[in-house]
What we know:
- By secondary structure, the protein is mainly alpha-helical.
- It contains eleven helices and five strands, in the order ααααβββααβααβααα.
- The termini are far apart.
Amino acid sequence: MVETAPDRWTEWLARLRETLDAADPVLVAGALVLALLLLVLGVALRRGPQSGATATEFAEIKGRLTAMSEMTVRRQAEEAHALDERVEQVAARLGTALDGVSRRLSDSLSEAQRQNSDTVQRLTERVDTLARHMGDNLAEAGRRTTESLSNLNERLAVIAEAKQSLAALSSEVGSLSGVLTNKQARGAFGQVRMETIIRDALPAGAYEFQATLSNGKRPDCVIRLPNTPAPLVIDSKFPLEGFEALRLARTSDEQKAARDAIRTAVGHHIADIAEKYLIPGETQDTAMMFVPSESVYGDLHEHFADLVQRAHRARVVIVAPNILMLAVQTVQAVIKDAKMRDQAGLIQREVGLLLGDVARLAERVADLERYFGQSTKALEKVSASAARISGRGERLTALDLEDETAPQGATPAAQLKQRAS
């Protein structure tokens, strides 16, 4: 069955009425204009006769729409009035809240300003204190810096002097190296060191330099020991070339060659000393070989023990400066002991004379004691007499010549005798 246009309008109006019944009047007012436009459009399209039912529904819808429009206008007016009142209340509350907030902000700002003022004052005081401390610290630091600079200048002066001394020492070491490389100069160097040690420790008659032996040889020094005509021989011409070569050696072959040269040179020197200076009945059975360097002496005992043993077997004693000084001091003690033994008779005679003098002194002291004893007794007697005389003088001073108890006609002598009795 074909649905006609009036039926569609009827159905559409029914749906519209249901929608208007269920819809919110506020929403309906918004859709009213759209509905009117649709109705006008529908009327314009149809332009034909309408049924009575449609006209009735249309009139009913129109009435509802008019009522809803009036309701909407009235509600909008009420809502606008309520909104104005709400806005006024919110404005009043907001003004009150703003006043409170303003007062609190003012109080907070005042308190913050006061605290800031106190903080600024404390910071100012702290900065002033720090400035004073910093000034004092800077002054102290300046003083210490000045002292440090003065000390540094003094130390630099000392360093400069030390540098000059090192330069002089370097030149002296260079000259010493030249001395050690020259055999004659090396012998003179060892001779000077040995002579210095001997002269400092022994008396002049106890040694002799470059003395001539019976075989025509002239050792560097002989020391004459007491109670024996055989002197002790000292040789100072020690070969140092091999030790200098060993010091400068870099490879193992060079070191081996230097050690072989040392063994050869020192061995020959030990044999020469034993052959030239050990003369039976004329010299001591032992001779000394002077080594002018403690380091060389240490190297001999550490790395060349075979040479030391060879010297012992040849009755040649290897001595360094310190050991030679010790040996010379021992000889000095022996010489002093021998001199004391030589003077023993004189000492005994002088002691006997001294004992006699002591005995005579004891006798004279005894006589003096007896004399002082007699003098003491005489002094005691004199003191007693003086005491009696003093007492009698005091009594004479207190004597009353007008004493009535004296017999009449008595003489003054009789009165004195009576008072004395």
